[in-house]
Amino acid sequence: MLDSGLEEAERDRLANEAKSSIEKGGSVLNEDNWGVREMAYQIDHKGDADYRWYRFSSGNGVLEELDHNLKIADGVVRFRVFEVEPDSPILPAPPETAVVMAPTGDDDERRGRRGRR
Prior knowledge:
Layout: E1 2-3, H1 8-25, E2 26-43, E3 46-58, H2 60-72, H3 107-110
Antiparallel strand pairs: 1-3, 2-3
Helix pairs in contact: 1-2
């Protein structure tokens, strides 16, 4: 998730740097740009972010470098790297009106209580 307050060219540069890091020691299997979307909750007083997705295969060295680079990159709001089964389907982007990272709908949220416990 990239800071939507940055110019589009800067967001593209950050995404391309991440992709280049992956391609140094692995391969990008799928790439998707979901664009600027509303988040379910604010991060650093920001209500939306530019979502970029990469499905890739690589070794641990690539993961370590990618993790390091994304942690220190200005403009990266949040990122996640997780393992999926190789034959898992690639899901399409949700509708543009969908809030990404929606709450789980646990009992506290249904009762109107939000935030940390």
